[in-house]
Structure formats: C-alpha cells, structure tokens
C-alpha cells in the first residue's frame, strides 16, 4: 500500500482520502485553512447558520457509492430530504414558476400550466434529447478519465451519436432548436452557470445538467449541506486517514516522480502518491512551478476561467410568506449579465459588477440555521467577475463591496423581495475573499469554465505529467459541482489502484 498525501480538504480531496483509506493506503490530508470543507463551508453567528457553498445536492448516487464502498450507507449517516419545489423562478414580464421535484414529467407539466401546452411539449422534447446526450457522454466523459483525441474518436465512429451530442452547438443554440418561449430559454441558460460558464459559448452537452437535476431529484441535508463534507471526513478518519488543518503546502516535491510535499513551515511530508484537491492553476503555478508543469500551465492559459460570485449572508427578522428554499430572480437582459461578468460584447476587456444581475436566494426553512422561528437566514448570490487587480476588476477597491451589496438589495426589492427593513446584519463575501480563503485564482468558483467546444479537453486531467501526482476537485476533469467532484475522486482512486 502507498503513502498518499492529499493536498486540500475540500470535498474532492476528502472523498479521495476516504476511498483510498478504505483500500488500505496510508493517507494524510493537508489543509491550509483552519477547517475542512473548502467551498462547502458553514458560517455561524448569533444563532444564524449559513451554507457558504452549494445548497443543493443532485445525483446523490455518487455519494451513496462512496459511502457503500467505505462502510455504512449514506442514508445511515445523513438525512437526504427532497426539495419540493426544487426552485421558484421569477421572470421579466411577470411570469412565476415553481419547478416541482417529481421528475421530468412534472417539470413539463409545470411549463404547460404556466405557458400553455406547447411549452410542455417543447420541454418534453428537450428533455428527451438531453437524456440521449447523458446516455452517450456519462461513461466516456464523466465517469472515466479523458483519453484525449481517442475519447472523441470513439464517439466519432457513430455519426448519429455525434449529431446527438452536437459538439459544434452551444447550450443556447440547443435551446433555440427546442424551446419557443423566451422564459424557457432563459431558464435553460442558467444551467451554464452551474459550471461557471456563458450559455452562448458553453457546449450543448451541458443539457445533461438540467437532465440530472430533474431525473434524479433535488436534495437538501437538514442542518446544512456542509455536513456532507464533515461526514466524509469522519468516514476517512475511521479508515486511519490523518487530517491536518492549518497546514499549507508550499511545494510538491518531484524528481522526476513524486517524493512528497513541503509545507510553508518547512516540514517535509514524504509520499509515494500526491492527490491535489486544490485549484489546478494554483497547483501548476505555485506548488509545481518547474518544467514538469509547463505543458499544463500552457493548456490552462488557453482555457477560459470560470465566473466567480458575490455573496451576501443576510440575518433577517420575521418570516417571508410563501418563501421557497430556492428562489431565482431573472433580469430583463441576461446577455448583459454575461458580458459584464466575462468582459465580452459591449464590455469587451472591461469586466464589471453586473448592474442588473440574476439574483439567487437560498433560504432553507431549517430550524438548525436560525435562532428561532421568527427569523430567517438567507444566502444571496449573484454572478460576478473574478478578482483581477491591475488587469480587470479589483474587488478590494474601497467601498465597492458595500455599495454593490446596497445595489443588490435594491434590485431584490424591485423584484418583490424587499428585506431592507428586516435586516439585522449582513456579511459580504467577494471574489477576492473567495480567492484568499480557497486559493482559487481570482475567486473562480469552478476553475476553468466550459466555454467552447474544446473546453472539456482543456480542463486539467486527473493524471498529471508527473508520475504519482493526481488531481481531483472542480477544477479538474470532469468538472465542478458536487456530483462531478465526487466522480473525480472515484476516477482518481481507480487510477491509483492501477498505478
């Protein structure tokens, strides 16, 4: 069995550690922060609690597999509660929609009730195409390590399959082929942001994102999703894994194969295998700056970094009638949002805070996250440009964060959610804060975006150019989001088992 060092105690690193520990490897996890979880965090203050990362679990089979392969089943450890409705949407023009959590048929029915029978039929047809894309891409693109051009070659042997996946088509382009209602196309566009991407450039294959959400359900963990990371850490420790916090890694040692890591304290931790759960750009730029990572750095420069997010944690007095767990408030001009975030179109080269953004609210009706039944804890997120002082937007500019928070509260009020008179306090987290806390470049939530047909092949591979060094997490293959991060840990565990 190998000595394994896992760099980073985010969900990818912890999942890999638990799986490898269960196989008998000697595993040590090194986390630079004072707590585990990475982007899957928790903030508690004055009786309020906030998930500071994901607030929704889809494709729970990924984590059921992890727990089954490492011990007791997931449902013996955590409660998974279905969310119904999965989300409440408010569109420009006044349409509102509750998306039910009872399968694809229920989603089509909701569209038919909101916009007429044609809309229901359109969504059914779209979901059928998304199902076909899922069936074709799940194993070669999501559950296996990418094998460069050979992965595409396998698909290309069947022209009908290529036409189904349509690698030349954007997600928005696919939506236009199936969806006649502008509200439905806007609804679909939002799923590109699940990978930090622009729907005008993200591939049609991202139709699998709404497919997964609707086919396998939307789930919440009472008490907060942060508990998923804590439960995986407990499972890892039960297999002898050592988890060290406040232990930032300075360098991956390789000559030419992996020999271990050196901490910022100067301590050296020897290893036969290193699994990096930190952002790939940070790994290859800072932890492996020599010639071994030159090719990976070159590939990363070709990729489009993902968007970031501007977050407000709101402690509110009183209760909101009819409030759902998730609410999305769409703007009048969705394209303008992506232009501001990515610095494209009229904003070319000038990314800036979105003046009229989509607002995402997560407000669980969860007694564990509020001091009493007369209060609410809201997580509010808007898409935002990365923190790039000197070349782009500097989120540390004096007064910017506070003035933008005031702007977002006003936008929420204009769309029917005015909480300004109920606000006890708020905490603001900018892309600069995310970069500092997680060492993600510019606060990019997902590392590389999925912008462009070749984006999957520009995303860093799970096996690095350095023998014995592997990558897990949202910035490596197969991508960001809780399901894909969990799949990356499964892929890497299999690769190490075969190394």
Tally of helical runs: 17
Question: What is the CATH superfamily classification of the largest domain?
Answer: FAD/NAD(P)-binding domain
Rg measurement, Å: 22 Å
Ranges where pLDDT stays below 50 over 5 or more residues in a row are none
Average predicted confidence as pLDDT: 94
The helical percent reads 25-40%
Describe the strand arrangement of the main beta sheet, using strand numbers. 7-6-15-16-17-14-18
CATH-derived topology of the largest domain: FAD/NAD(P)-binding domain
- Supply the number of structural domains: 3
Question: How many extended strands?
Answer: 19
CATH architecture of the largest domain: 3-Layer(bba) Sandwich
- Counting helices, strands and paired strands, the structural category is alpha/beta
**First-to-last CA distance:** 11 Å
Describe the protein.
With 499 residues, the chain is an alpha/beta fold. It has three domains: 186 residues, FAD/NAD(P)-binding domain, CATH 3.50.50.60; 134 residues, no CATH class; 134 residues, no CATH class. It is 37% helix and 18% strand. The chain contains 17 helices and 19 strands. The strands form five sheets. It has a seven-stranded mixed beta sheet with strand order 7-6-15-16-17-14-18. It is globular. This is Phytoene desaturase.
Quick overview:
With 499 residues, this protein is of the alpha/beta class. Helices cover 37% and strands 18% of the residues.
């Amino acid at each position: 069995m190998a000595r394994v060092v896992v760099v980073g105690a985010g969900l990818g690193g912890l999942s890999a550690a638990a799986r490898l520990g269960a196989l008998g490897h000697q595993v040590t996890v090194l986390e630079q922060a004072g707590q585990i979880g990475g982007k899957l965090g928790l903030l508690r203050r004055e009786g309020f609690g906030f998930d500071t990362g994901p607030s929704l679990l889809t494709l729970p089979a990924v984590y059921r597999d992890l727990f089954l392969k490492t011990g007791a089943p997931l449902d013996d450890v955590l409660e998974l509660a279905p969310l119904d409705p999965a989300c409440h949407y408010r569109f420009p023009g006044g349409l509102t929609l509750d998306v039910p959590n009872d399968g694809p048929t229920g989603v089509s029915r909701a569209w038919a009730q909101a916009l007429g029978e044609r809309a229901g039929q359109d969504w059914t047809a779209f979901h059928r195409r998304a199902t076909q894309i899922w069936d074709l891409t799940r194993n070669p693109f999501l559950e296996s390590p990418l094998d460069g051009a050979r992965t595409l070659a396998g698909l290309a042997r069947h022209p009908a399959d290529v036409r189904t996946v349509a690698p030349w088509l954007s997600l928005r382009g696919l939506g236009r082929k199936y969806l006649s209602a502008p509200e439905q196309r806007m609804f679909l566009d939002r799923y590109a942001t699940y990978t930090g991407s622009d729907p005008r450039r993200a591939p049609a294959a991202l139709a699998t994102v709404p497919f997964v959400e609707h086919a396998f359900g939307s789930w919440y963990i009472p008490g907060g999703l942060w508990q998923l990371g804590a439960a995986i850490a407990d499972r890892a420790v039960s297999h002898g894994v050592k988890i060290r916090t406040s232990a930032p890694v300075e360098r991956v040692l390789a000559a030419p194969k992996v020999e271990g890591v050196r901490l910022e304290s100067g301590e050296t931790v020897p290893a036969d295998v290193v699994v990096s759960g930190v952002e790939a750009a940070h790994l290859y730029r800072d932890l492996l700056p020599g010639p071994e990572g030159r090719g990976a750095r070159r590939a990363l420069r070709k990729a489009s970094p993902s968007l970031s997010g501007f977050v407000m944690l709101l402690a509110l007095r009183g209760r909101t009638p009819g409030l759902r767990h998730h609410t999305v408030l769409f703007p009048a001009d969705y394209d303008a949002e992506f232009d501001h975030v990515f610095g494209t179109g009229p904003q070319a080269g000038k990314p800036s805070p979105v003046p009229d953004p989509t607002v995402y609210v997560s407000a669980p009706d969860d007694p564990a996250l509020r001091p009493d039944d007369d209060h609410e804890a809201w997580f509010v997120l808007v898409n935002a440009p990365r923190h790039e002082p000197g070349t782009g937007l500097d989120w540390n500019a004096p007064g910017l964060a506070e003035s933008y928070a005031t702007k977002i509260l006003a936008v929420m009020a204009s769309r029917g959610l005015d909480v300004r008179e109920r606000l006890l306090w708020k905490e603001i987290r900018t892309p600069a804060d995310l970069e500092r806390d997680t060492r993600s470049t510019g606060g990019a939530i997902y590392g590389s975006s999925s912008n462009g047909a070749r984006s999957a092949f520009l995303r860093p591979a799970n096996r690095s150019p350095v023998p014995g060094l592997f990558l897990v997490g949202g910035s490596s293959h197969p991508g960001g989001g809780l399901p894909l991060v969990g799949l990356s840990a499964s892929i890497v565990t299999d690769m190490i088992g075969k190394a």
